[in-house]
Structure to design on (237 residues):
């Protein structure tokens, strides 16, 4: 059975295929902070919104371009929002809103592990879908089997189980996903082929999970996909 995991609050990152020279990464050991909104209720309750910790690795967008970077500082807005100073893989500093962060992962405590992971994220940013499939050893048949099991559970229990990149890897390979596997699975599950079977679930503008489509929706989506991708392995499954 597919293991359904409560979606992780930390999302992973990616970056450019080439990277600049790296200096040891210093990671904050402070816990994630919370933002207090000025929209307090009459009874005094204040809305809390979680923010990313300093040192977190993130994939973010800026003027329709995708970057990988490390959070340098957090600015708490009185409205309840947040802005971040982020240093990208080319050592350029950006001032971005929370909504521009698309994926994140906590920085490892070990400087060596942190540098290694950051470099891997940077190299993975522009990896094509075919290469992701090969790296994860996920065939179109496995993808369809994952959807089939999720759809059956939804039908049997009358509920909607959400799939995360971590639970997807655990279900198809029966082991806990590494940080890199989760990131690559997150990218794969947003591909055109995966959209045949799953729809994206967003939170604060970020894709955080995936939901199995109904059988009728998959049938229609697969027919449409194969009209435009006649040579795809999926069309022979």
């Amino acid at each position: 059975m597919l293991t359904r995991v409560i979606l992780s609050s930390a999302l992973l990152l990616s970056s450019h295929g080439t990277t600049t020279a790296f200096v040891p990464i210093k990671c904050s050991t402070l816990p994630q902070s919370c933002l207090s909104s000025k929209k307090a209720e009459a009874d005094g309750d204040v809305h809390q919104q979680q923010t990313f910790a300093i040192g977190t690795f993130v994939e973010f967008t800026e003027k329709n371009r995708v970057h990988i970077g490390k959070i340098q500082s957090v600015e708490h807005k009185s409205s309840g929002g947040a802005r971040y100073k982020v240093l990208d893989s080319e050592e350029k500093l950006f001032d971005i809103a929370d909504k521009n962060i698309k994926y994140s992962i906590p920085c490892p405590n070990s400087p060596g592990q942190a540098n290694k992971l950051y470099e891997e994220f940077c190299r993975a940013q522009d990896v094509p879908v075919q290469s992701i499939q090969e790296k994860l050893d996920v065939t179109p048949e496995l993808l369809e089997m994952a959807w089939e099991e999720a759809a059956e559970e939804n039908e049997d229990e009358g509920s909607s189980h959400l799939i995360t990149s971590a639970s997807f890897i655990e279900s198809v390979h029966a082991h806990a996903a590494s940080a890199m596997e989760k990131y690559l699975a997150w990218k794969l599950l947003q591909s055109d082929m995966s959209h045949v079977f799953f729809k994206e679930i967003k939170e604060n503008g970020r894709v955080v999970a995936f939901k199995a489509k109904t059988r009728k929706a998959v049938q229609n989506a697969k027919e449409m996909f194969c009209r435009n991708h006649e040579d795809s392995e999926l069309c022979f499954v």
Observations:
- The longest helix spans residues 140-157.
